[in-house]
Amino acid sequence: MDLDAITKHSALHAKPPGLTFHYGTAGFRMKAELLDHIMFRMGLLAALRSKQTNATIGVMVTASHNPEEDNGVKLVDPLGEMLAPTWEEHATRLANAEDGDVARVLVDIMEKEAVELPQDAFVVIGRDTRPSSENLGQSVREGVAAFGGQFHDYGLLTTPQLHYMVCCRNTGGRYGKATLDGYYHKLAAAFLELTKQASCSGDENVSVKVDCANGVGALKLKEMEPRFSPVLSVQLINDGTKGKLNHLCGADFVKSHQKPPQGLEMKPNERCCSFDGDADRIVYYYCDVDGAFHLIDGDKIAVLISSFLKELLLEVGEIFNIGVVQTAYANGSSTRYLEEVMKVPVHCTKTGVKHLHHKAQEFDIGVYFEANGHGTALFSKAVEVKIKQLAKLEDKKGKAAKMLENVIDLFNQTAGDAISDMLVIEAILALKGLTVQQWDALYSDLPNRQVKVKVADRRVISTTDAERQAVTPPGLQAAINNLVRKYRLSRAFVRPSGTEDVVRVYAEADSQESADSLAHEVSLAVFELAGGIGERPQLGFGR
Ligand SMILES: CC(=O)N[C@H]1[C@@H](OP(=O)(O)O)O[C@H](CO)[C@@H](O)[C@@H]1O
Ligand SMILES: [Mg+2]
């Protein structure tokens, strides 16, 4: 490592003065023009992490569902998982170092982590379609090169595709081929094999309208479409040819506004879904004959997937423990349905996919979804091996095992993946002969509301019990408890966002009016007890 060269290079990627940066829930995320030095330094850090793990590390340039003007970056660890927490701290330190101190901080991290310099470093890079992503990707490449590392830049990729590439490269190809063709081939083959076994379909001529948020998901879905089109036809909306990324469209917009995206015309009962800007989230929806909008979010996706897996396991005749992981944002009805009707254990973790993913790894089969539509299913090595064996049998058991084998291949087990999840969902609906309306009718969501409150310093709020209870400021939780008591079937909690400078308030109750009113009253309590700034929250604002 040439420290002088790193110092010289760092000066070309100068840190803007007077700002502090934090590797948060989803890496670094902010206005694109503030990110150049971070990209260069994350190139350096990825190379360092690669040496330490003796494995390929990924760097994804994206700000997901955030506005087009923003951008961001996150590192992907060897098996395609999120960066380890101690390295998040290193990332934060490196991002905040003065330009002249970058080399010194790197040396310090190297000593702490006992990194051996002679190891090779290899980094793979992907980016979304934001106008700023190309130059920012170039800065990442310069960072890797300044550290003496090698890289492969895949160019435009969805976030889960990059996670997939990293995993493939570090598992000797066992997970799949580390190319786009390899990704398409693996998923399409599993999907076609699975759907072959569908004897009846609830919907004839299965077709789905896909709102791609004007993001990278559109390009990749278009590329992949010919491989599955004999079975499923997709109509791409907001494919990036006209509209602005994430503007009035995409999974986050649809979930938080509980209405269809702009540009998508829905006929009654037509099956639709939305991806987010980097295609790692998906939500489904439709309009009924009375014009009412029905959202099928991550919670209902988790219910569909876990009930399908449970049924398959029964047919296979193996006892594997299966669990569902949610966050506090999961609708109370979904938790009740999973626990009481399906008899599946449910666990609640803090917000952020790394927490869910980690928990899901504790089960033989762990299904995790955030309500906003980010999720997947994980299968232990033991399950995969056993299912492969059983799939060789020629009986009923073998048939079910074969199906499960394809389901395992169809999931992206490294991260939530809109394309993969869509194909899983479509395959399950086809195999079970279900329409989206029947799927939606499994249970009714409790009316809910999410709002944001601005406070001077959101860190004054600390939480416990997977973010469901506020510990500080004093009196806030007692106030929330008193408010919740006023409503039926009610629940509310508050937490500081990890990606925006706001406090998030969530409330649910027996009617929309009650949920709105509870969310409003809790917002006022936050405003008063946690140092609210600006205008006092008003009913209907802050959504
Ligand atoms: C309520 C909500 O949807 N929160 C989102 C949001 O996190 P916050 O920490 O709430 O800002 O962005 C995260 C990253 O995309 C995602 O994992 C999470 O679910
Ligand atoms: Mg995303």
UniProtKB/TrEMBL annotation:
<comment type="function">
    <text>Catalyzes the conversion of GlcNAc-6-P into GlcNAc-1-P during the synthesis of uridine diphosphate/UDP-GlcNAc, a sugar nucleotide critical to multiple glycosylation pathways including protein N- and O-glycosylation.</text>
</comment>
<dbReference type="GO" id="GO:0030097">
    <property type="term" value="P:hemopoiesis"/>
</dbReference>
<feature type="domain" description="Alpha-D-phosphohexomutase C-terminal">
    <location>
        <begin position="452"/>
        <end position="523"/>
    </location>
</feature>
<dbReference type="GO" id="GO:0004610">
    <property type="term" value="F:phosphoacetylglucosamine mutase activity"/>
</dbReference>
<feature type="binding site">
    <location>
        <position position="276"/>
    </location>
    <ligand>
        <name>Mg(2+)</name>
    </ligand>
</feature>
<feature type="active site" description="Phosphoserine intermediate">
    <location>
        <position position="64"/>
    </location>
</feature>
<dbReference type="Pfam" id="PF00408">
    <property type="entry name" value="PGM_PMM_IV"/>
</dbReference>
<feature type="binding site">
    <location>
        <position position="504"/>
    </location>
    <ligand>
        <name>substrate</name>
    </ligand>
</feature>
<dbReference type="InterPro" id="IPR049023">
    <property type="entry name" value="AMG1_II"/>
</dbReference>
<dbReference type="InterPro" id="IPR016066">
    <property type="entry name" value="A-D-PHexomutase_CS"/>
</dbReference>
<keyword id="KW-0597">Phosphoprotein</keyword>
<feature type="binding site">
    <location>
        <position position="280"/>
    </location>
    <ligand>
        <name>Mg(2+)</name>
    </ligand>
</feature>
<dbReference type="InterPro" id="IPR016055">
    <property type="entry name" value="A-D-PHexomutase_a/b/a-I/II/III"/>
</dbReference>
<protein>
    <recommendedName>
        <fullName>Phosphoacetylglucosamine mutase</fullName>
        <ecNumber>5.4.2.3</ecNumber>
    </recommendedName>
</protein>
<feature type="domain" description="Phosphoacetylglucosamine mutase AMG1">
    <location>
        <begin position="297"/>
        <end position="433"/>
    </location>
</feature>
<feature type="domain" description="Alpha-D-phosphohexomutase alpha/beta/alpha">
    <location>
        <begin position="51"/>
        <end position="97"/>
    </location>
</feature>
<comment type="similarity">
    <text>Belongs to the phosphohexose mutase family.</text>
</comment>
<dbReference type="GO" id="GO:0000287">
    <property type="term" value="F:magnesium ion binding"/>
</dbReference>
<feature type="binding site">
    <location>
        <position position="278"/>
    </location>
    <ligand>
        <name>Mg(2+)</name>
    </ligand>
</feature>
<keyword id="KW-0119">Carbohydrate metabolism</keyword>
<dbReference type="InterPro" id="IPR005844">
    <property type="entry name" value="A-D-PHexomutase_a/b/a-I"/>
</dbReference>
<keyword id="KW-0460">Magnesium</keyword>
<dbReference type="GO" id="GO:0006493">
    <property type="term" value="P:protein O-linked glycosylation"/>
</dbReference>
<keyword id="KW-0007">Acetylation</keyword>
<dbReference type="GO" id="GO:0005975">
    <property type="term" value="P:carbohydrate metabolic process"/>
</dbReference>
<feature type="binding site">
    <location>
        <begin position="495"/>
        <end position="499"/>
    </location>
    <ligand>
        <name>substrate</name>
    </ligand>
</feature>
<dbReference type="GO" id="GO:0006487">
    <property type="term" value="P:protein N-linked glycosylation"/>
</dbReference>
<dbReference type="InterPro" id="IPR005843">
    <property type="entry name" value="A-D-PHexomutase_C"/>
</dbReference>
<dbReference type="Pfam" id="PF21405">
    <property type="entry name" value="AMG1_II"/>
</dbReference>
<keyword id="KW-0479">Metal-binding</keyword>
<keyword id="KW-0413">Isomerase</keyword>
<dbReference type="InterPro" id="IPR016657">
    <property type="entry name" value="PAGM"/>
</dbReference>
<dbReference type="Pfam" id="PF21404">
    <property type="entry name" value="AMG1_III"/>
</dbReference>
<dbReference type="GO" id="GO:0006048">
    <property type="term" value="P:UDP-N-acetylglucosamine biosynthetic process"/>
</dbReference>
<dbReference type="InterPro" id="IPR049022">
    <property type="entry name" value="AMG1_III"/>
</dbReference>
<comment type="pathway">
    <text>Nucleotide-sugar biosynthesis; UDP-N-acetyl-alpha-D-glucosamine biosynthesis; N-acetyl-alpha-D-glucosamine 1-phosphate from alpha-D-glucosamine 6-phosphate (route I): step 2/2.</text>
</comment>
<dbReference type="Pfam" id="PF02878">
    <property type="entry name" value="PGM_PMM_I"/>
</dbReference>
<feature type="domain" description="Alpha-D-phosphohexomutase alpha/beta/alpha">
    <location>
        <begin position="107"/>
        <end position="166"/>
    </location>
</feature>
<dbReference type="GO" id="GO:0007283">
    <property type="term" value="P:spermatogenesis"/>
</dbReference>
<feature type="binding site">
    <location>
        <begin position="370"/>
        <end position="372"/>
    </location>
    <ligand>
        <name>substrate</name>
    </ligand>
</feature>
<dbReference type="InterPro" id="IPR036900">
    <property type="entry name" value="A-D-PHexomutase_C_sf"/>
</dbReference>
<feature type="domain" description="Phosphoacetylglucosamine mutase AMG1">
    <location>
        <begin position="178"/>
        <end position="283"/>
    </location>
</feature>
